[in-house]
Every structure is written in C-alpha cells, then in structure tokens.
Amino acid sequence: MSDDSRPSPPAGPSATRTAAVIPAAGRGVRLGPGAPKALRALGGTPMLIHAVRAMAASRAVGTVVVVAPPDGAAEVRSLLDAHALPERTDFLVVPGGQTRQESVKLGLDALPPGHDIVLVHDAARPLVPVDTVDAVIEAVRDGAPAVVPALPLADTVKQVEPAGTPGEPEPVVATPERALLRAVQTPQGFDRNTLVRAHETVTGEVTDDAAMVEQLGLTVVAVPGHEEAFKVTRPLDLVLAEAVLARRRLNDGF
C-alpha cells in the first residue's frame, strides 16, 4: 500500500496523467508447476497484488491496467476486488495476448485518454520501491521519450558461442567492458505517443518495450534502479522476495 505520509507531487495535470500497464499473462514455467507466475503467493498475497500496489503507491499514477491471461480476466478482476487498493487509483483488467508484446499493446489500447506518460511494469517485480517509480516518471516528465531503471553489473559478463545442446561447454568469444553495461529493470516509462508508435511500427519479438523505442531511433535513458526491484523468475528468487518482504514488514510495517 502507499505511504500517505509522503509529500504529494506538484499540483496540476502532470500529477494525474500517468498510467501503468502490468502484463500478467505469462505462465512462469521456470517457477515450476502451479498457478501463473503473477498469481503465486508472496507473503500470503499474490505477486500481482504487490506489483499493482507498487505502481499505485506513486501519487502520480492515476490508472493501472492489468493485462490478464487470455482466459483469466474474470479471475484477476476478482483478485483485485478481494484486496485493499488505493481508492484514488482506477484499476482496469483486460485479457492479454499470446506474447508479452501483444499483451502490452492490448493494455495500451485499453487506456483512457488524458494519460501522457505510460509505465510498463513486470508483474514478476513485486517489490520495486516507490522512489524508483517516481524517478522514472520524473525523467519522462523532463523530456525523455523512454526511461529504464537500471543497475551496474556485479559479475563479469562473457559473450559465448551458444552450444547446440544445453549443458555443453560454450566457447567464449568476447568479454564486454562491464562498466558500460547495465541490468535493466521495470517500470519502464514512456511518452505515451512514442510507445503507441513503437507498438504500431516495430515488428519482431523484443525483450522489453524500450528496445522497441530504440528501433525508432530515439534515445532511451537510464535512471538508477534498486536491488529490491529484482524479477522473481526461479524458486530461489521467491525465497529472496519472501525475505525482503519479511524485513519490510518488520522494519516499516509494510
């Protein structure tokens, strides 16, 4: 939930023109069998609810669109209705597509007019702090067409020649300079018209929406991310997320 003791952003239209789209239609097979990844419990609450609350915690976010599994929109609507969410924020649920890219486009299509900034956030990043959300929004307000939160890499990175069979040794072909690399997180923020144009003109699968804007020839800028905005992909990530959430509840009453 949001912290009502935080100061509000400056009054005016810019404070209410941000929307967030949360694609939550993936199955999350790497977490193992069971419910779709976004519906897995974290601290007794579905990860999706944590992600929705993380977006709504920003006072700049007036609307959150959740893109549900194609056959699961009713279930997701019931889920949102069953959990306490900020009354100042509007929540919409739409069925998703077969790919993340299709799902984001469907979420964009469902956005009502009047939102100049759009955030796209992974449901599998349930613990992103509100300060990171606000930093992304502010950078778009300052004129960037696309903004990503990002962290420097701790590990050395190797480029390899992929093996034909999983598990086989792979020859290393290069060692990129680590200081020039960043690990990108979400929410990613966009000028709405730019993101709509990217989804209408860029074809082929991409790993994130910022890559689509890059293909338009526009500059994507990075702002500092946060270590707690990690993506819950594997069982070990879920263990770490539970630990972070437990610490928050102990220290902050989160």
TrEMBL record:
This is 2-C-methyl-D-erythritol 4-phosphate cytidylyltransferase. Pfam families: IspD (PF01128). Belongs to the IspD/TarI cytidylyltransferase family. IspD subfamily. The gene is ispD. HAMAP family: IspD. Keywords: Isoprene biosynthesis, Nucleotidyltransferase, Transferase. Its EC number is 2.7.7.60. It is an enzyme of class 2 (transferase). Signal peptide: none annotated. The keyword Metal-binding does not apply.
